[in-house]
Amino acid sequence: MIRFRNIRWKNFLSTGNHWTEINLEKSNTTLIVGHNGSGKSTVLDALTFALFNKPFRKITKGLLINSTNEKDCCVEICFCVGTREYKIVRGIKPNKFEIWVDGKMLNQDAAANDQQKYLENNILKLNYKSFTQIVILGSSSFIPFMQLSAPGRREVIEDILDIRIFSTMNTIVKEKMRTIREQLKVLTLKKESLGDKVTMQKEFIVEIESRGKDNIKEKEDKIKVLQIEVDTRMEHNEILDSNIDDITEKQKKVIGAGDRLLKLNNLKGKILQKVSTHTKEHDFFTDNTVCPTCTQSIEEDFRLNRIADVQSKTRELKDGLKELEETIKSENKRERQFNKLAKELTDLTHGISQNNTRISGLQQQIGDLGTEIQTITDKLQDRNSEHEKLTVLQEQLNSTYDKLVQQKEEGQYKEFVYDLLKDGGVKGSIIKKYLPLINERVNKYLQMMDFYINFTLDEEFNEKVVSPIHEDFSYASFSEGEKMRIDLALLFTWREVAAYKNSTNTNLLIMDEVFDSSLDGTGTDEFLKIIRFVVKDANIFVISHKDGLQDQFMDIIQFEKVKGFSRMVNGKQ
Length: 573
Description:
Blueprint: E1 2-10, E2 20-23, E3 29-34, H1 42-52, E4 73-81, E5 84-92, E6 96-101, E7 104-105, H2 112-124, H3 128-134, E8 136-137, H4 150-160, H5 164-254, H6 257-287, H7 300-381, H8 383-421, H9 426-448, E9 454-457, E10 463-466, H10 480-501, E11 508-512, H11 521-534, E12 539-543, E13 555-562, E14 565-570
Parallel strand pairs: 3-12, 3-13, 8-11, 11-12
Antiparallel strand pairs: 1-2, 1-4, 4-5, 5-6, 6-7, 9-10, 13-14
């Protein structure tokens, strides 16, 4: 049971920088009164803000801080669950969220959302929606059970019957199913991949064993063809080498012709120059008897002797020149022969070079083919290792298949559990079990408020109403006062069932302006009887500005506004 002890706040809504504190277990019945805007409903917002970080009324969280002071907004609430004492501290400017257990604050390292989940799931064991159905009945922002959507109604009842664990389990199972589906995809892809590898390895082994020898023979045949060409070209090189030797010997015979030809042509030039000089001298002495320079007479004997001598020397030179020209012709012929032999030698050398290049390429091909033959031979000799690889792949495939089958079985089991945990499964059976009790208690409280109708909820939480006047009625068909009676009956029923189930049993019940508009005098009287004599072990707070109620309550709290700030004034002591 959650036993709320006290709550206090400051700089919250219209409350100033002083603590306003209410003892939540002081009296069984407490009336909270005050003029409109005095702050009498502030306790509702303070309560839900402290516990769930949201106001009860439809206002934004930012508007909770006092608009005058604009800082140090804080709410503290103390309660116990069993033997453990709790205090929740929540604030704005600065932001604050503290959970105290038996005087020690919980670790603040966790994110605020995680701490809020811990508070709701592990300490309070109810959420905001269920809290407002069991602890608070308001006239403004409160949404009665009958006005909730079908999922909202189910959520409240699951909290009350303490079966939301099945929804949590369902969520967990659903997540595990998603994980299993992802694993199945991965395993399926792995199985297909391993299957392809096994097939490829089998084909590889077949190729090694059935085609290896044929492949070797084909490559050996290529080697033979290439080797024949190598041998042919090498033989041709031998012939070319022999020809080179012959030409080299021939070259030796005509070697140096160029040098000799050069010398002979130089000698020919010199002889021609001498012939020219002798010719000029002959012409001079033939044409001149007097020296042109000194004008002296040239002796006739001397002149004739010079002419005869020059003529004799010229004849000798011309005779020698003829012999020289014959020699030059001979050397020219030898030079042409040498050049021809040199060209032949170059051609032969080039042919050998081409053959050597081709031979080198052929030998490289022969070497590559030999390597390929050796590789195939090694594979043929090492077939055991390939079979071992196949065995390993096959084992991996079998293992993956077994895991796949296991995951499929696990998935089927999870789907079975998932179906079991759905609304129509275990939860549906439990709800069906408690529906007669719920309907019986609702009608009991309706009768206590002099409202004689037969109100029932089905397994989908849809209402069926039978009245003395109308056979079939709905919640929406009633007046606001009649709807309020139904809302009150459901509220008391939820509290009773929750206490019975020990799911959300609490001492606190707060009702905001339930008398002020919807309930008539008879309904009000019957309601007061219920909260005084039927609702036991509870501290009930009623917020109202209706006159004539003070004498019906054990304690009165009055709120008033002074200089713009709300403050609390105690009534009965």
